[in-house]
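User: Predict the structure for this protein chain, please.
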Amino acid sequence: MQVVILPSLQTKAELINGEWVINGQKIWTSTAQYAHMMFCLVRTEPDASKHAGISYLLIPMDTPGIEIRPLVDMTLKAGFNEVFFTDVKIPETNIVGSRGEGWAVANATLGHERGSLAPPDAIMSRLNMLLELMQQETLDGKPLSDDSIYRDRLMKIQAKVMAFQSHALRILSAKLNPGQDVKIGKMIQKYVGTELRHELEGLAIDVMVKLESCTRIVRI
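Assistant: Here is the predicted structure, written as structure tokens:
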């Protein structure tokens, strides 16, 4: 669940006889169908202010009362799921932090999660794969990497990827030094990493279309 809509969440948990009893649903749960454990932000203090009434619970996925419904996308894959809770019971100790501290815990964990969604090594790997493709495939007997238009686009993306790697290393260095807040840097990493993936994949699509178009012309 996105932090921006957390204050209005309706999934609730009541502490009854040493157990949290959870009812409600959580949407956009990544790979829930494979997970053994999940975290969930629930409302435990209904009379508190919206931010203060949230707690952070850890829930084993084999707990009775859990139903997972895959959200199938246009590729017929289900990376996300809806998870429904009907009188799901977990131990009282399965709480991270204290009651009502879920907002703070969620912001702390998301600060690290954002950066992990845009790993610099994966983006560099995509760049190298595209570079190899452009060097191997030829048009009119010359590597596609010799085409000034495509080479210019590739070099601009390469410069951005290298800057992105430097930023990621700076974030890593900051994490190793106590007292340095990296949450904003991680947000930047996720945003820039997502944009770079779009640029790389866009160029890859254009390259494949160019190669396929030329192949068809030759065949005709």
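Residues 216-220 have pLDDT under 50 and may be disordered.
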